Amino acid sequence: MIEPHAPAPPGAPPSWAGPARLPVRPGTGRFLVLACVFVCAACGLVYELELVALASYLIGDSVTQASVVLSVMVFAMGIGSLLAKRLRRHAAAAFGALEALLALVGGCSAMALYAVFAWTGDWGGLWASGPRWLLVAFSLAIGLLIGAEVPLLMELIQRIRRQDAGGAVADLFAADYVGALVGGLAFPFLLLPLLGQLTGVMLTGGVNAVVGGALVLGLFRRDLTRRARWLLLAANLAVLGVLATAAVLVDDFERAAREAVYGQDVRVALKTGIQEVVLTGDTDGRPLGLYLDGRLRVSGRDEHRYHEALVTPAMDGPHARVLVLGGGDGLAAREVLRYPDVRRVDIVEIDPAVVDLARRDPALSRLNGHVYGDARVRVTTADAFRRLRTAPPVPSYDVVIADLPDPGITASTKLYSEEFYGLVRRVLAPEGRLVVHAGPVSSRPRVFWTVESTMRAAGLRTTPYRVGGRDSGFAAGPDRTAGASRAPCDWGFVLATRGTRPALGPGARGPKPTTLTRESLGAARRAAEATRIVGLPASTLVHPRY
């Protein structure tokens, strides 16, 4: 047998250190290395997907976050592969140390990012903000470590039995790609629903450390000095200890982080298959707050102003049959049911947990006037786009109210597309009205006017209007991130019809609004028009503009 540092055979690469001294047969050794490649690839993809998912949840705009994380990681993988060339002579020791470090960094990345979000709240604004650079730093570090795996594993598998480079690459990449497939499927279908974001990635780190350490300490232990074996064993045990401790404390961490984000009066916190739902307040005089994925959707302080401004102008005309898209909290339906001649209200809500909470929670059901006990209200659990697409193309609704998340959240972009408004137009009666919450005007005028331009492109006649938030300028309307200091100070709406341009009015046949008059609505229209941006293209499914 050739010793580890014997002279290289003719034609061998400079890093050749001779065949590995294995405790098993070469065929078994190759199988174990390829199995390790499989597991490491699965773990690496879980780290990537976890960063994308957490960034999309905390920051929003999942397309941007996925692009940033994946592009940085792929770039870093290339750099890691180049740097690993210098470690090939000590491939076994280097691979063991690398896997221990990758398990620690990858396994703790989600908790670190969530901690920064919870205790600093600094995720808005420019990319110069610290937490966003922390996301890039984790992507870079994990990418470097993943990229360094391949050259080292190639060296190890060649030391077991030399073969042509093409065959070795094919074997290695086959195991790598199949492992990536398993990791990619395990994350959304197994780890995320059963363990959650934090525990799932910690378990992945633990598996990564165990498999990497076992391969080196078991299969290639004769290539390591006694001191190196003990150091590697200690490092892996330390990493496993850190991950195990974090996993044990994860519930306490989540509670503390939740209090840092939402305050200390959290009453309900649940994770549905779609989003995180949190209810705060309505105790000891504190106003109720409903948060979806960390964004304030309802505030008991001023939700009445928002929902009245959303619903009242749309009800200034025929309104016997009303369709509410979103609005599972029941508050838009509450405003609709104030009109006695309403015969039916259909609510399309994607998350049944929100509807159940609006039915059963004493504070929220009291705020929405117990609308789900009204026989005129019917709920459909469905995606609004899919529901409209499968609906009969027959004009059937006098009023359609789109109380949906902001278009800047990528999952909702299709609900602000030209195709979507075309589907709404099909179910809108000839004299019917559509009203859309289009986000804050003052802070995001381009988004607001893109919504209006898109509605016009779908064949609708529009009247935009802008209603101010609370007098303090700290509005609590939809899509404000919990704890953010840069809250929108206004709400933007677009009223539309299939025929002539709709006029804004409080509705002569309904109850008298508490905050809106014909004069105030006229001022709201002029306030919006003063910010108009002309020439904006429509947003479509294949070319979103938000």
UniProtKB/TrEMBL annotation:
The active site is at 403 (proton acceptor). The chain crosses the membrane at residues 31-59, 65-84, 96-121, 133-157, 169-192, 198-218, 230-250. Pfam families: Spermine_synth (PF01564). S-methyl-5'-thioadenosine binds at residues 275, 349, 383-384. It is a multi-pass membrane protein. Signal peptide: none annotated. Its main location: membrane. Keywords: Cell membrane, Membrane, Polyamine biosynthesis, Spermidine biosynthesis, Transferase, Transmembrane, Transmembrane helix. It catalyses: S-adenosyl 3-(methylsulfanyl)propylamine + putrescine = S-methyl-5'-thioadenosine + spermidine + H(+). One of its GO terms (molecular function) is spermidine synthase activity. Its EC number is 2.5.1.16. SUPFAM superfamilies: MFS general substrate transporter, S-adenosyl-L-methionine-dependent methyltransferases. It is found in: Cell membrane. Belongs to the spermidine/spermine synthase family. This is Polyamine aminopropyltransferase.
